[in-house]
Structures are given as structure tokens and as C-alpha cells.
Amino acid sequence: MRIMIKSERKTTGVTIVDVAEMAGVSTATAARVMGNYGSVSEKTRKRVQDCARELSYVPNAIAKSMRMQHTKTIGMIIGDIQAPFFGKLVLEVEAYTSEKGYNLLVCNTNERPERELMHLNSLFEHRVDGIAISSCMDANAALPAEYQRIIDSDTPIIFFDRRVGQKRWPTIQCDNYKGSYEATKYLLSLGHRRIGVTASNRSLSSMTERLAGFKAALADHGLPFDPELVRFCEESHRLEVARAVIGDLLDTHPDITVLYQLNNPLYRATWFELKSRGMEIPRDISLLGWGGEELAEAWEITTVTQPMKRLGRRIAEILFDMIENKTDYEGYFEQMDTKLVHRNSCAPIK
């Protein structure tokens, strides 16, 4: 006869061995019950489960994932956790992963390549089932060998918003070139010719494509591209750094009639910088940007908007298709249309 005395049992650090001992079964049988695999009689199953509850036993998720060959975890690497763009995408991907019974690990790089590689290594070492990456690596440079090794592995990986290296890895993004072309054409239709452009990291494919669309629109209107009117802010998430970049552009070229911002983290810095100068939008200067719908709507900024819900959903759908169905997406590239939303931040030149 077994006598159980609760006060002598620990409720922390309890192992499957403790559960097996209390239930009077082998460790292998207890493991089969708690892991929900193999054949065990209903009577034995109930006894083991009752003992597990009595001991407050918590299964070892890491050990279980090693047995099952998956961790039920997805990794997502983003550039700037403060940017509304990434926040919306994380929410969409997390909603989908939850539907699938998976957890989502979000890693923030602050647009620093060394942090991206660190996070990628960590996710790979923790055997996540798939990874979605918005990379800050130089789109035109060779990837570090360690980075290349991981994305060449069997771990399903999808890139979003930005391309890197070879075009063999699945990528989904919005049409940066066309969106920027249409935005620039609109500014030109209002009579603007001195257009100041601000962007984040110059090596990002998204910035390169948006700048290319800007240049093409100028060329189609017979206007030259002036590189002096373009400023890059490598740390757009840092308010004072971004303000300094915008301030320098305004000081150097006071004849600028509109600021065209290629990513939304610069909105906040622009608002503070213009306010400190006593400048109002669009009375003193016009403003057109990319994304950041809530902030853009609140400040009535005309923007190039991206289909965030659809983009986030597709990132998750493709990644899970790779994980669960082993679908091969090598060379896959999907591009979504943008939309120019007119508000009150752009005025015509009189």
C-alpha cells in the first residue's frame, strides 16, 4: 500500500521519474502518457495524469521538442520595434501562429547587421521551426559565411519587406519602385521641384527601390536628380540623430518645398524639428511619407500605404506552408501594390 504525504512532496523541480514513482509505473510509461504518444491503457493513463496533477508536474518543453523534432516556435527578426510598420506585421503573424498552436519569438535588430546575425544564430540554435526576416544586411553585398550557412540550412526561412543576397530565398514585399514613382509624380503635379528626400539605411533594398522610383519619375518629367537633396539616417529610430539629419538638410537647402520621407520612423523627428523652427505643414513646407497609418492619419500626412494585414498574413501562410507541407519556395517572389492616400500635408506651389 502506497501512502502519499503531500507536505513532503516538492511542487517545484518535479521530474517524470517522480510522477512514475507515485503512479507505480515505469518512467517510460509515464513519459508516454505525458507526451501523449505510444499505447497505454486508460486506467494507467488516468492514474499517471492524476499523479502529475498532484505533484504539479510541468513537462519539459525542450525535451519534448527534441523527441517530436519540432519546437512549435517561430522566430521573427525585425528592424525597429518602435516602427508602426513592424508592429502591425508582428501582430498579424502572431495571430496566425496562435491559430496554428505555435509561439512567436520577436527579435529586434535596431537595423544593425551584427545584431541580426546574433539573433539568427540564437533562433537557429534553439531549433525554431521557421524564421521570418526583415533584413538590414546590405542588399548588394555578399552575406557573412555564418549567415549564409544558416539560411542555406533545412530551417524554413522567408524574407519580407527587403531582399538580400541571391534571389533564391522566398521573399514577399510591397512594390517600392512603383509606389515611390506614383508619389513623386503626385508631388511634381503640385509644382514641387525642390524635393528633399530622407531615408534610413542606404543599403536596404526597400530604400534603394524607392529611391529608384523617385529618380525615374524625375527623369520622365525631364528633371535632373540632385543627390545633394537626399539624406540617409542610419539610426532613424533615434530621435536626436534623425532630427540632426533633417535639420542639416533644411539648413543646407532652405529652398526645399517638400520633404519626401521613405520610411515612417522619420515622422516623429520631422514633427519635432519643424516645430522647433516654427514651421507648419503645409503652410511652410509640404510632407509626404511611407506608411505609419495611425500617426499619418492623426497628423494628416499624405502617405504611400501598404496592405499590412494582407502582407502579414501572407508571410505567415508561406512560412507555415514550408514548415507543415514541406513546400519548396526557392526563388519565390511576391509583390503587393501600394496606395497613395491623400490628406492635408501637401500643398501646391503657388
Mean pLDDT: 87
Radius of gyration: 27 Å
Give the helix/strand class: alpha/beta
Helix content: 40-55%
Instruction: Report the order of strands and helices.
Output: HHHHEHEHEHEEHEHEHEHEHEHEE
What does this protein look like?
It contains 13 helices and twelve strands. The chain has a six-stranded parallel beta sheet, sandwiched between helices. Helix 5 crosses helix 13 and helix 8 runs parallel beside helix 9. The longest helix has 17 residues. The protein starts with 15 loop residues before the first helix and ends in a 9-residue tail after the last strand. The N terminus is likely disordered.
Jot down its keywords:
43% helix; alpha/beta; 6-stranded parallel β-sheet; 350 residues; 6-stranded mixed β-sheet; disordered N terminus; elongated
Question: How are the elements arranged and paired?
Answer:
Layout: H1 16-23, H2 27-35, H3 42-54, H4 61-68, E1 73-78, H5 84-99, E2 103-108, H6 113-125, E3 130-133, H7 145-151, E4 157-160, E5 171-174, H8 176-189, E6 195-199, H9 205-220, E7 230-232, H10 239-252, E8 258-261, H11 266-276, E9 286-290, H12 293-298, E10 302-305, H13 308-324, E11 333-336, E12 339-341
Parallel strand pairs: 1-2, 1-3, 3-4, 4-5, 5-11, 6-7, 6-8, 8-9, 9-10
Antiparallel strand pairs: 10-12
Helix pairs in contact: 1-2, 1-3, 5-13, 8-9, 10-11
